[in-house]
Design brief:
Layout (H helix, E strand, L loop, with lengths): L7 H11 L4 H4 L3 H11 L4 H14 L3 H6 L2 H8 L6 H17 L7 H5 L6 H12 L8 H10 L9 H12 L7 H14 L19 H5 L15 E12 L2 E6 L10 E2 L2 E3 L4 H10 L4 E13 L3 E12 L13 E4 H6 L8 H4 L7
Parallel strand pairs: 1-6
Antiparallel strand pairs: 1-2, 1-4, 2-3, 2-7, 5-6
Helix pairs in contact: 1-12, 3-4, 3-9, 9-12, 10-12
């Protein structure tokens, strides 16, 4: 704790010289900070940039987010994954419209109470947008602090996170709370890096770091090993008819809830089994070809996918969305219906001619 009292000055001086230019930093309004922080969960900064620009361009404020049709909202999020993040954002936006006049409250506890917002995000919003002396402790900050203090405690434990939050609250400078939090996050992102050797020679806190002093930087932070993922075999079908493609809406609960997907079945099916399924859907197959295998990793499960492209005769007229598969124009696939990234290896085949 004694060493933490001395980190603000060198950290902020370093940040002023080395902070990356990021679109959400150009105008750190509460809404822009909120959107960026939710997008950055489980996603790399470079990947988030175009999503952020597009999302803000179409939904520039809390009211627009609250009123957006769900399919459009999910389409804007397509490719970022973890779709409950944006669903919770919309729930929170509606609360903000109903209870706070469409504004983010300048109160940490009120922000923390919103759906999908934890202590880190609430700290980031209130410190960066409002200058409140609240810590924002994410994985980057946990790594920096565990090395600074040479702490071998499990950083995934809430008790450890809360201790670091309490310690930081005492040393956040009154006049630059947001910059202080961002400087710690930035340091962890580009200097005190994960999954590799930290760039200790570039670190403004080198002389204060107990892990470096003891030569144990690579031993920290300590984390409970993640649970082993389950494997699941799937067969994905690219069903096309002239300029139309088949999709299916997933159930409202569970994995990828409420999103549109390519028709798929459990297990790795052979050509005969695929053709039998297609005929069961009332479709007449014309040609079939096998597609390359693909894999998609979710947080707790891996899909190992086989794929087939099947050209079918023009399907009978269909009414709207329903439990079974239905056909839409290929342009609609790209512009209207949100298809999860899990199927990204196969959506490209809709552009081919059969």
């Amino acid at each position: 704790m004694t060493r933490l009292k001395n980190i603000a000055a060198p950290l902020l001086a370093w940040y002023d010289q080395h902070a990356r230019i990021l679109p959400w930093r150009e105008e750190p309004s509460p809404y822009r900070v909120w959107v960026s922080e939710i997008m950055l969960q489980q996603t790399r900064v470079e990947a988030v940039k175009p999503y952020f620009e597009r999302f803000i361009g179409e939904l520039p404020g809390i009211r627009e987010l609250a009123e957006a049709p769900e399919d459009r909202l999910l389409k804007l999020w397509e490719g970022l994954g973890y779709y409950n993040r944006v669903r919770n954002m919309q729930k929170a936006a509606r609360i903000l419209v109903e209870e706070y006049g469409g504004e983010m409250p300048r109160d940490f506890d009120a922000v923390l109470a919103l759906p999908g917002i934890g202590s880190y995000t609430a700290g980031a919003i209130t410190s960066i947008a409002f200058g409140l002396r609240r810590p924002a402790v994410d994985g980057n900050v946990l790594r920096v602090l565990s090395r600074l203090e040479k702490s071998y405690e499990d950083v995934l434990k809430q008790s450890v996170r809360r201790r670091f939050e309490q310690e930081l609250t005492e040393v956040i400078p009154e006049e630059r709370a947001g910059d202080f939090n961002q400087s710690l996050i930035e340091l962890g992102a580009i200097v005190c890096v994960p999954n590799g050797t930290p760039k200790c020679g570039e670190c403004p806190l080198l002389r204060l770091c107990q892990a470096h002093e003891a030569g144990v930087e690579l031993e920290l932070p300590k984390k409970t090993p993640p649970a082993k993922r389950k494997w699941e075999d799937r067969t994905v079908l690219v069903l096309v008819s002239d300029n139309k493609a088949a999709i299916h809406k997933r159930p409202g609960k569970g994995l990828l809830a409420g999103l549109y997907e390519l028709p798929n079945l459990p297990g790795h099916l052979n050509r005969e089994e695929v053709l039998a399924f297609v005929k069961e859907q009332g479709l007449s197959p014309i040609r079939i070809r096998e597609l390359p295998a693909a894999k998609h990793v979710f947080s707790h499960i891996e899909w190992h996918m086989a794929g087939y492209a099947v050209k079918v005769e023009e399907p009978l007229a269909q009414g709207g969305e329903r439990d079974s598969i239905f056909f839409v124009e290929k342009e609609e696939m790209e512009n209207v219906y949100p298809i999860p990234a899990a199927f990204g290896a196969y959506t490209q085949y809709f552009r081919e001619r059969y």
